[in-house]
Specification:
This protein is an alpha/beta fold. The chain is built from 14 helices and twelve strands. The structure holds pyridoxal-5'-phosphate.
Length: about 375
């Protein structure tokens, strides 16, 4: 891997052959570079897909997928609990391009079906929602998309290919925020878009190149290095997440624990079927005592970085009411089950005992209020 953004050609004839696609190689990094090509192919292999394009962020990946798929007059249907920026893209930006959008409950394929329109061209979902970890009816929605000839786009950032390969369930395009679990060290912002269809791949690559969504060679290098330990990090984090969910489950001061591995999770059975008995590294929970309890917990659990990201090698805590979901009114948050006492923990690779001690310290501070 190298950090160059421009590449020498042997002759005008050689450059011609390159641009015409007769020769493999690179000319200028916005059009593609070796680091992005290697990283893109690595993630494609993990997803079981033939093609993958690396982009400068997860949002760029979603943007490239949508630009490659939709045109003015089309309608895009999406899951209602999407990532905040994706919701904003649907609400404010696509309509300016003449693309109508609407949202429906992705845990219910019938609700999605009811929201389809004659001009619907694509469906965008996340298999696991943030921070309530609701699991989409991927099978049902894929059947709908197949029956109607719609393009199904799946943002697989939360499950990662370690838990789910959406293409095996009917997704036409898979996107990632590589920034999160795949790269895993919060030092590179990157995205990825993959597909099996050569024409889709060409359209995605053209959109990403023309709109300048290209990734930096250095970020790709960092992510490729991070990917080397992805399985290890994921397995370790998932194991600790199960222990933390169990620990929180019996604790006083905890109103509820949101973890797909718990039988009381509303999508427990679907998660088991879709993820083959894996439950991931995310645990959300609600403390009794609202914002004051959340403040006390975060301050006392000093070893859990309070930072608005997920999937880092170190554990991170987030408070949806003041960050990812702050755009919603207090009423809308309460209705969605995202009160001031809700925290989301992205579990990292620290020793399990260290993590449990942090949780215990946080809960003790809440109890002392
Ligand atoms: C973070 C995230 C994104 C956006 O990715 P960036 O790399 O931050 O642009 C998209 N979807 C999901 C589910 C995410 O968690």
């Amino acid at each position: 891997m190298a950090l160059s953004v421009a590449y020498v050609a042997e002759s005008p004839d050689a450059l011609d052959a390159l641009y015409e696609g007769h020769d493999q190689g690179f000319s200028y990094a916005r059009e593609g570079h070796p680091n992005a090509a290697a990283l893109g192919a690595d993630i494609a292999a993990r997803e079981g897909l033939a093609h993958g394009v690396v982009t400068g962020s997860g949002m760029a990946a979603i943007g490239a997928a949508l630009l490659a798929t939709l045109r003015a007059g089309d309608h895009l249907l999406a899951g209602a609990a999407l990532y905040g920026r994706s919701l904003r893209l649907l609400r404010e930006d696509l309509p300016r391009l003449g693309i109508a959008t609407s949202l429906a409950d992705a845990t219910d394929a019938r609700a999605m079906e009811a929201a389809l329109r004659p001009e619907t061209r694509a469906i965008l979902i996340e298999p696991v929602s943030n921070p309530l970890l609701r699991v989409a009816d991927l099978e049902g929605i894929a059947a709908l998309a197949r029956a109607r000839g719609l393009t199904l786009i799946v943002d697989n950032t939360f499950p990662t290919p370690a838990m789910l390969r959406p293409a095996a369930h009917g997704a036409d395009i898979v996107v990632h925020s590589v920034t999160k679990l795949l790269a895993g060290h919060s030092d590179a912002t990157l995205g990825w878009v993959g597909t099996n269809a050569p024409d889709r791949h060409a359209a995605i690559e053209a959109a990403a190149t023309t709109w300048g969504m290209t990734a930096s060679p250095f970020d790709c290098w960092l992510a490729a290095r991070g990917l080397l330990s992805f399985e290890l990090r994921q397995a370790r984090a998932a194991q600790s997440a199960a222990a933390i969910a169990a620990h929180l489950g019996g604790a006083p001061g905890v109103v509820r624990v949101i973890y797909p591995g718990r039988p009381d999770h509303p999508d427990h059975a679907r998660a088991r079927a879709l993820f083959g008995g894996q439950w991931g590294n995310m645990v959300s929970f609600e403390l009794r005592g609202g914002r004051a309890a959340a403040n006390a917990f975060v301050r006392a659990a000093r070893g859990l970085a309070f930072a608005p990201t997920l999937g880092d090698i170190s554990s991170t805590l987030s408070h949806p009411a003041s960050s990812s979901h702050r755009g919603l009114s207090a009423e809308a948050r309460a209705q969605a089950g995202l009160g001031e006492g809700v925290l989301r923990l992205s579990v990292g690779v620290e020793p399990e005992a260290t993590l449990l001690a942090e949780i215990t310290a946080g809960l003790a501070a809440v109890a002392a209020l």
